[in-house]
Write a structure and sequence with these properties.
The structure is a single chain. The chain is mostly helical and 237 residues long. It contains eleven helices and two strands; from the N terminus they run αααββαααααααα. Strands 1-2 form a two-stranded antiparallel sheet. A hairpin with a 3-residue loop joins β1 and β2. α2 packs across α3, α5 packs antiparallel against α11 and α10 runs antiparallel to α11. The longest helix has 25 residues. The two termini are 29 Å apart.
Length: 237
């Protein structure tokens, strides 16, 4: 099961590591590597994928960061949870690692946006944010995906910062934002009503902190929300 990549140097290391990362995710999702079972050793994985051990180690570090595997000192890496296999069908082939990296980027960017919005929002911003939150609520009642409405809320918060660069960043990376919102909203429809409600509750906490001009609380609530969204991508259903 070797993967054809020219070499393990420079940019290629990152790309090759991403491919291996995605292959291991797929093998966890389809049960090849069962939950609570130990993954093959680094050397064995390197042999399986035709990669160097440092590249495999990089992939395993990402899997640990995503909560899919856990390491036991002296024993190796164990599968912690099995993600919904549909995740792999929702993102372009070979880009799953990039989707996760973008969540990392969003966690910082949007937390700062929420903090600025709490400081700077005006009456029209409050109206725009409130309307977006209500639209998501309507989607929940009707059992609709609500990915565009979710984006609209985050867009409204960016506008409320009063800083055009936050708005420009959302436009520049709109395809990346769209994938993240679409995947997380699609997966949420497979979850229990309580789990779906918890996501909207996170939105409500962010909005409440913004309207109360509680900058630190808004920052922290948004960061939690984005990191939770990242984790929810790999939660089994």
């Amino acid at each position: 099961m070797k993967l054809s990549v020219a070499n393990d140097s420079g940019v290629g290391v990152t790309r090759f590591g991403d491919i291996i990362y995605e292959r291991i995710v797929a093998m966890i999702a389809d049960g090849t590597f069962p939950v609570n079972e130990r993954l093959p050793a680094e050397a064995k994985l390197a042999e399986m994928f035709g990669a160097s051990r440092p590249v495999v180690r990089d992939a395993l570090e990402r899997l640990r960061a995503d909560g899919l595997v856990v390491s036991s000192k002296g024993s190796g890496s164990y599968v912690r949870q099995r993600p919904d296999s549909s995740v792999l069908k929702m993102v372009p082939v070979g880009s799953l690692a990039d989707v996760q990296r973008f969540f990392e980027f969003r966690a910082g960017l949007e937390a700062e946006a929420a903090e600025l919005a709490a400081r700077n929002w005006q009456a029209d911003d409050k109206e725009r944010i409130t309307l977006a939150l209500q639209k998501i609520e309507q989607c929940l009642r009707e059992g609709r995906l609500g990915a565009e409405e979710d984006q609209e809320l985050h867009d409204a918060i960016a506008v409320a910062t009063g800083n055009q660069f936050h708005v420009s960043a959302r436009e520049l990376f709109r395809p990346h934002f769209a994938i993240g919102h679409s995947v997380t909203r699609s997966l949420s429809l497979k979850r229990t009503p309580e789990q779906i409600r918890s996501v909207q509750d996170e939105h409500a906490v962010i909005v409440q902190a913004i309207f109360a001009r509680q900058e630190t609380e808004a920052h922290d609530a948004m960061k939690r929300h984005i990191l939770n969204a990242r984790a929810r991508m790999f939660q089994g259903v």
